[in-house]
Amino acid sequence: MRSEGAAISRTRAERAEAALDTLTAAPAAPDRLHRVLEQALVFAGAAFAGVYTPGDDPAQLRLAESAGLPRTLYGIRDGYPAAGGSPVAEAHRGGHPVWLSPEQLAGCPEARRTPSPDFSLAALPLGPAGSGCLLAVSEHPGGFGADDRACLELVARAIAVPRAPEPPGEGGEMAPDAFSLAMDSGRVEVGDGILRLFGIARDDFDGRVETLLALTVPEDLPALMSVVEADHMSIGERELEFRVLQPSGPPKWLRLRGRLLPGGEGRSARLVGTVADASTLRSDVTDVARVQRLAASLATATTVKDVGKAVVAALRGPLKADRLALAELENDRLVVTVLDPPEPEAWPEVWRTEWRTEWPDAPVRAMPTLATALREGRSRIWPAGSPLEPALAEVGPGGLAVLPLPAGGRMAGACLIGWDRPHHFSPDERALLTACAGLAGQALLRAHAFDAEHELVGMLQRTLLPRRLPRLPGAVAVARYLPTTAGLEVGGDWYDVIPLADNHVALVIGDVQGHNAGAATLMGQMRTALRAYAVEGHAPDVVVAHANRLLLDMETDLFATCAYVDVDMEEGTAWCVRAGHLQPVLRHPDGTAEILRAEGGPPLGVLERAEFPMTPLRLLPGTVIALTTDGLVESPDVDIDVGMDRLAAQLATADPEHLGLVADALLGGAHRGDDVALLLMRYDGMAVRPLRESWTVWRLPEAVRHARRFTRRTLRTWGVSPETVEAALLVVSELVTNALVHTDGQIRLDLSLVNHRLRLAVADSSPRSPVKPTSIGWEATGGRGILLVEAVSAAWGTVPVSGGKQVWADLVPNG
Hints:
Elements: H1 2-25, H2 32-43, E1 48-54, E2 60-68, E3 79-81, H3 87-94, E4 98-100, H4 102-105, E5 120-125, E6 133-138, H5 146-158, E7 178-182, E8 188-190, H6 192-198, H7 209-213, H8 221-228, E9 237-244, E10 252-261, E11 270-277, H9 287-299, H10 304-315, E12 323-330, E13 333-340, H11 349-352, E14 355-356, E15 359-363, H12 368-376, E16 380-383, H13 390-393, E17 399-407, E18 410-419, H14 427-464, E19 475-482, E20 493-500, E21 504-512, H15 517-535, H16 540-553, E22 560-568, E23 573-579, E24 585-587, E25 593-595, E26 600-601, E27 614-618, E28 623-628, H17 630-633, H18 640-653, H19 659-667, E29 676-683, E30 691-697, H20 703-717, H21 722-742, E31 747-754, E32 757-764, H22 785-792, E33 795-801, E34 804-811
Parallel strand pairs: 23-26
Antiparallel strand pairs: 1-2, 1-6, 2-3, 4-5, 5-6, 7-8, 7-11, 9-10, 10-11, 12-13, 12-18, 13-15, 14-15, 16-17, 17-18, 19-29, 20-21, 21-22, 22-23, 23-27, 24-25, 24-28, 28-29, 30-31, 31-32, 32-34, 33-34
Helix pairs in contact: 1-2, 1-5, 2-5, 9-10, 9-14, 10-14, 15-16, 20-21, 21-22
Protein name: PAS/PAC sensor protein
Organism: Streptomyces incarnatus
InterPro entries: Bact_Sigma-Reg, GAF, GAF-like_dom_sf, HATPase_C_sf, HATPase_dom, PAS, PAS-assoc_C, PAS-like_dom_sf
């Protein structure tokens, strides 16, 4: 047995060495390093392989090339400090390999979020110390075995220290089929051959990538955008086919091959590659190429539906199959995720009797042959005429392939491929189906976990943010929130719109440090605290100071930034308080926009005795206030000051009449590497301004009489009817008397007339609310005041105000 194992090991190592010798002996090609890395996936079973080398800055090791699944699945970064403690740095400095098992990785940052518990890592030096290293990741239980390690060492020896290739158009004339796209500006240089394929004359091309994208078939645009957007690409090569519209006739198929070159000092990242007419290329694709294409598609598939679409594109057309179904296995039921074709009539009757939502839900017990295949865990093929139960026979009367999809030690589901006419299954085709089944099973398991976690994250985020914004007097507010696409962590950004007394409104936006459940929980606590302090009637600086003290008392390591704007809708004035947050942006009615230079205090939770100064604002009708978090204006390629200037410029050119469209347009350029919160409010001014007067009640023997006289004079000036005045005097007498008798400190009487509704309010320093007696005897000398107030008022109540309370009563004047 030992000799047989050694023979297998030698055979695999020899095959890897032969493949690498062939690649390195061939003339140098732009994709040679990528193809060498692919051998680590084929022969060593790696899920990811990447090369790190010193860049322009020797203190940093940068990712020069990668292959396999996206690095973000494993928490792997684009760069590591050469002097740091990462496995990459250790292999680079020491010149010796580093092998880390799942147990050793349990406490490392790279293991914080992985799709498999069997996450192993290897870092191998590229020659002597200081030359860089090869980083590989495995999801196999037990990590890299002896055979895998031998193959990885061969791959590491075959890798030459790469030099960043020069983008087309930067060292010579652009080839006819080449292009170079700047990822930050969207400017693209293209060869004359590409312009001919798109039907554009050189003089008519404006150099914008949007001009080319506008000529593509709309259905192909999402796939194309996944290539031309940097957020969706890892360093490496991508290939896809898409269609462009023609002046007459059917669309033309083109094939794009591209790779993302990372940016450096003074230059942005660029997407470079070629575009060719797909009809002139080879139509016969090898089985290895099909597996590679499926692996590339599944690497970017994040949902179960994405996995299904990738499998359909990779198998149904190339195999000339008539139907394909991809299903997840849930207990004893086959929950079909993707059907191609999607029409119910194309599928067996038993499937159509088990409809659930948009796809059928078929019981496995109705298909014992399928149940056996799933239990055995190996692909099965039945040629035409095989005796099968109707539920399967009708799927492929000319031939049926059932591919169990193994993943993580269990069956994730099954893929069924059927032909109507007799189909001959060659040995290569059988091997292709088996290889694709393993890839699809792993991708389906990852996507299912992604879908479940994404739904959980979304539900948590929706719970913590306002479900809807309130209707405001004299203003319109809209808000948007975009979670980050860099991972599944819930963000700490939040916003709130808080209606306050006397037609005041508080606009709040904030950001808690971090992207995890702790940050989200703290975000919910801070939002609730700020709302509670604001509703109590505190001044804006006091509200923020209270929140700062609360965060310090919570003894958390996290801090938060916040911007708080208290707007007086009646007067068109506002007070702004900042706690380490971005400045608000104002768009004035004349179309100009400015970044408010408001004083600010430190972030919340940093200093115990922090001061939060208030900055006054003057709002004219038509003014738009924009509050945002740094995810909208800052990215690795854009400085925050540049982003703020860009936001102000976009806001200046927007139409404030359609505030929702303005918010959507502002979010269109979001980097999505961080979550984004955006809050906009357009101040229109109140059509009818309430009438208000206030009176400070001094503790004198004649205090009640003075309060009554002030009330009578004010209400007569407002034209309130005599009957309502008499009722108001009774209410004022009772409320002021209660405050004088039962409280200490200052007392204030407020009168307001809003929309023919008169409000009488008395504020004092006691937090205790008056209690309405349940019963009063005939001999009682007190306790009837609140009953009298209730009898003559349309409504009454109490609200907390700055450590005390305000007792109010509403009257509806008759004229």
